[in-house]
Amino acid sequence: MWTINGFEQQKKFFENLARASPPAGGLAHAYIFSGPEMIGKKMFARDLFTIANRMARFALHDPDLCELAPRLAEGETWIYIDDVRDLKRFLSLKAFQGPYRFVIIDDAHRMQEAAANAMLKALEEPNPMVVFVLVTSQPELLPQTIGSRCQHIHFQPYSQKDMERCLAKYDLARTDRELVAGMAGGRLGWAIQMSEPDNLKALKKAIGDFASLLKKPLSERMQYAKTIYENEQYGQYVPLWLHWAYSQRETLGGPKDAARILSGLLDLNYYISQPQYNHRLLLENTLINL
């Protein structure tokens, strides 16, 4: 049973494959699921796992499932060769319930070179009952040798209308629902995450602060940059400012004003992800020049 909304074309495609059985038919050995971040690619892969194995519901610790991703909770942003090597034992076992065993790799473009080479070796030794799903928002960063051994499935962002319909089940005021849907850029996963009460409160504060800053003198902008830097809030706030500014680009003064603001926020969003730069100075310079 599908739990994810939308993607009807992809659902129909995989439902037809799941009805067949190898070697005459069935799922391919490997897929790349590509599309913007947080639109539901990993959720779709998990749904596919349950449907292909005719299960009633998804279970994260199912013995026929192995998931790899950067260990963000440990401060890691890469997938290392040791993570991929750990697959060896999983791949050597037969399906517990099956018929398929799944390997879902989230943010697959974050595999280091050695990890990608180890993954390539696994893909070169196909088992018809093991399915690899590489989930990525940047498929162009995957080695061509990996891409050539996978079927590519692309996922488009949701329309704002579909977003608002999906968010209707959440206890949101109409204005909040429109705000979240407008900022999400078609990323339903992001919209659902931002609909949580604490996240919504933080979202509204961040964009309220930013909208107010556009009318403030330079001294107050400098003080605000100092405050959010010292409170370590800027990493959360800057992407929200960027999404909001893009959704409001028609109302940010004239076209030149909107372009200046968006360009400044794009640069700031990139540079604060790089530890070698002075983040406080970047914040101050960007806010001064808005």
Automatic annotation (TrEMBL):
Classification via InterPro entries: DNA_Rep/Repair_Clamp_Loader, P-loop_NTPase
Listed Pfam families: DNA_pol3_delta2
Coiled-coil region(s): none
Any one Gene Ontology BP term: DNA-templated DNA replication
Protein name (Swiss-Prot/TrEMBL): AAA+ ATPase domain-containing protein
Lineage: Bacteria, Candidatus Yanofskyibacteriota
